Amino acid sequence: LLLRMKSLYVLLFSSLAFVVYARDQTVGVRGTLMCGSEPLSDAEVKLWELDTWPDPDDELATVRTDKQGRFEIHGTENEFTSISPVLKFYHRCNNKGLFNIPKLCKRKLTYEVPSSYINSGKNVGKWYEMGTVNMEAKQKGEGTECL
């Protein structure tokens, strides 16, 4: 019983140490999505922070592109180690669809955000300017999300 209590105290103390040393980290991204020569409006853009097991990945924010295909997204995560931010784009540009039903599925593309754009604290200090990205061509590692 004494050994169990000691183990419990060590685990509790270790957990508190991680909480004390964790820090807020923020990332922000701006860009424009195109579908060929047309702006890609109403595409869903999600900012995720990827974690390793057993800590699940965290969705930090979700936005949709405007009529000109523009988006601006930012999010904050409190982590002990440096965060690993990625953008996930969900869109229907050049989408043939499942069973040739074009609106049934969305194309899904994941894009890593460079670590040099992670800011300490809760404010975006340095935005990652992604520029204009044409989503027409299928990319390596691209997936599909249906319904």
From TrEMBL:
Signal peptide feature range: 1-22
PANTHER family tied to this protein: TRANSTHYRETIN-LIKE FAMILY PROTEIN-RELATED (PTHR21700), TRANSTHYRETIN-LIKE PROTEIN 5 (PTHR21700:SF3)
Family: Belongs to the nematode transthyretin-like family.
Gene3D superfamilies recorded: 2.60.40.3330
UniProtKB keywords: Secreted, Signal
Subcellular location(s) of the protein: Secreted
One GO CC term on file: extracellular region
Protein name, per record: Transthyretin-like protein 46
InterPro entries referenced in this protein's UniProt entry, alphabetically: Transthyretin-like, Transthyretin-like_sf
